[in-house]
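Example S7 (structure tokens).
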């Protein structure tokens, strides 16, 4: 059995790379007699159709943190980690019906720009700085690190050169062309992502069944590791602090999902670039249906890897190579790259293409959104208010390059992290509760004032850090520890959101009618009216989710 790349794998991989670069550069070109302006570069000329929006949303979302990090969590935790994907489908419907109509009506480029329209320039700047720092030091760096880890495991590429290669690949078609290049190439990336991911799922399950097929393999891993198929974990489960039982369905996961899909620039930017609101809503529905499929591509392989590693008979079928880079409870993120090694020639290349597509598409999206926020909300606000379109686009490209360089330098420092998906969620969760509290109250409660929102943004992080760091620092058995026990980070996010919302509400009411900075929106029922296609499709998503949770509820 060959665990390295063979000639056919290299052909598949480089064929994919040439296709993506070719399409990306073709879409990057300036039309004759037209120089790319800010709307062209940052919002793809507001011309994206529904299918490009839906596929681009998934390509931007699914990255190394899912393929590697979520497979690692599948190995360590099991199917329960799928709640991030399946509940995201419901969240997308909420965003499409209640948030997106307001954003598109206001004609915004960035989420911080919306904050300025609703609150003030000062709050916009605070949040813009938050987002730029978060994208560069958490999102971009983690994607580069996990992508390089995969290349190192599967192809034996040195981590340093893998980071350099991924950086240059993403930069080659995204820095010049902007969102248009990214969105259109994403439509191709998703095809590779889905079919390449399914190839790995098939191999893993077919290996478990001894060549009897995927369905048989699924039944075997269900029988051999029933605990890995529990969607609702009890407190005795060692992973309860990551996925706190019923709290996953009614608590902090809503904070994570609503923030991510509703107020995250590199996600919502695709919908803002739609031809129309209805086109954007149809794209969001496509993304919701695709989210239902993702656990079968990224979580099931992780569970299959767990069964293989812990069954001597199945592991023996892989030969001596099966013991190379083998995943374990302390190195769960090796599960997906380890499985790819055993695919036959051609399919191995396809599976690695799926992983690469997920990495570079997300990386390109994060770079573009980082440059959009910095250029539109910081550079044009404080450095060059009179910047013309040519200079604005130039600054956007330069910002992307600098963000990529910083990410490449910081990425190696993440070495040694286990379950990177959980790491990313936990540290993003320090910022997201405050932002969600500000936006929800700002959107739907007219009395929310600018001063209250600024204070909410400032105090939310200390509150989050109190829950995250405070309880761990107290002596075991102390009265303080018993009063403030260690809290699952999803519950921490929920509590932080509620406390921040209460804080904002109290200050807003204290200011009362005398507040002269209140720019609340007057919302009409017609704003949230959706088509029959949207309503029927949304209902279908809900029915599928009810079935999935009912079947796997334990």
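Recovered sequence:
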């Amino acid at each position: 059995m060959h665990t390295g790349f063979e000639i056919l794998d290299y052909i598949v991989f480089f064929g994919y790379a040439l296709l993506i670069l070719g399409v990306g550069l073709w879409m990057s070109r300036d039309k004759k007699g037209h120089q790319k302006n800010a709307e062209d570069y940052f919002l793809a000329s507001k011309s994206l159709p529904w299918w490009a929006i839906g596929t681009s949303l998934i390509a931007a979302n699914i990255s190394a943190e899912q393929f590697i990090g979520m497979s690692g969590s599948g190995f360590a935790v099991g199917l329960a980690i799928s709640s991030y994907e399946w509940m995201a489908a419901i969240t997308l419907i909420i965003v499409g019906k209640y948030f997106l109509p307001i954003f598109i009506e206001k004609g915004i480029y960035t989420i911080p720009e919306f904050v300025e329209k609703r609150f003030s320039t000062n709050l916009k700047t605070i949040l813009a700085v938050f987002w730029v720092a978060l994208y560069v030091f958490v999102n971009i760096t983690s994607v580069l690190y996990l992508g390089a880890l995969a290349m190192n495991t599967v192809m034996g590429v040195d981590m340093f050169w893998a980071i350099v290669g991924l950086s240059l690949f993403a930069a080659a078609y995204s820095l010049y062309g902007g969102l248009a290049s990214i969105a259109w190439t994403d439509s191709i990336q998703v095809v590779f992502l889905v079919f390449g991911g399914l190839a790995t799922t098939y191999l893993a399950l077919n290996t478990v069944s001894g060549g009897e097929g995927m369905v048989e393999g699924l039944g075997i891993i269900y029988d051999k590791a029933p605990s890995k198929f529990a969607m609702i974990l009890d407190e005795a489960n060692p992973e309860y602090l990551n996925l706190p039982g019923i709290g996953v369905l009614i608590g902090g996961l809503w904070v994570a999902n609503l923030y991510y899909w509703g107020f995250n620039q590199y996600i919502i930017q695709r919908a803002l670039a739609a031809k129309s609101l209805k086109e954007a809503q149809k794209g969001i529905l496509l993304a919701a249906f695709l989210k239902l499929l993702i656990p079968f591509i990224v979580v099931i392989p992780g569970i299959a890897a767990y069964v293989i590693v812990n069954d001597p008979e199945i592991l023996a079928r892989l030969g001596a190579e099966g013991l190379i880079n083998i995943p374990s409870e302390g190195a769960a993120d090796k599960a997906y790259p380890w499985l790819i090694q055993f695919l036959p020639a051609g399919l191995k290349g396809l599976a690695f293409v799926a992983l690469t597509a997920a990495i570079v598409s997300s990386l390109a999206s994060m770079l573009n959104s980082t440059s959009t926020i910095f250029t539109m909300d910081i550079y044009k606000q404080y450095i060059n208010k009179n910047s013309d379109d040519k200079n604005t686009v130039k600054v956007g490209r330069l910002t992307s390059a600098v963000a990529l360089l910083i990410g490449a330098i910081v990425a190696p420092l993440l070495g040694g992290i286990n379950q990177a998906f959980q790491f990313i969620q936990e540290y993003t969760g320090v910022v997201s509760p405050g932002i969600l509290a500000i936006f929800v109250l700002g959107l739907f409660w007219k009395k929310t004032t600018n001063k209250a929102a600024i204070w909410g943004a400032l105090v939310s992080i200390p509150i989050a850090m109190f829950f995250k760091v405070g309880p761990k620092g107290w002596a075991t058995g102390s009265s303080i520890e018993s009063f403030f026990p260690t809290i699952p980070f999803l519950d921490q996010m929920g509590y932080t959101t509620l406390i921040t919302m209460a804080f904002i509400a109290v200050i807003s009411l204290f200011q009362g009618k005398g507040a002269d900075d209140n720019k609340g929106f007057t919302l009409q029922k017609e704003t949230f009216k959706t088509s029959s296609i949207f309503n029927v499709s949304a209902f279908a998503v809900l029915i599928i989710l009810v079935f999935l949770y009912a079947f796997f509820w334990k």
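Notes on this example. The chain has a mean pLDDT of 82.
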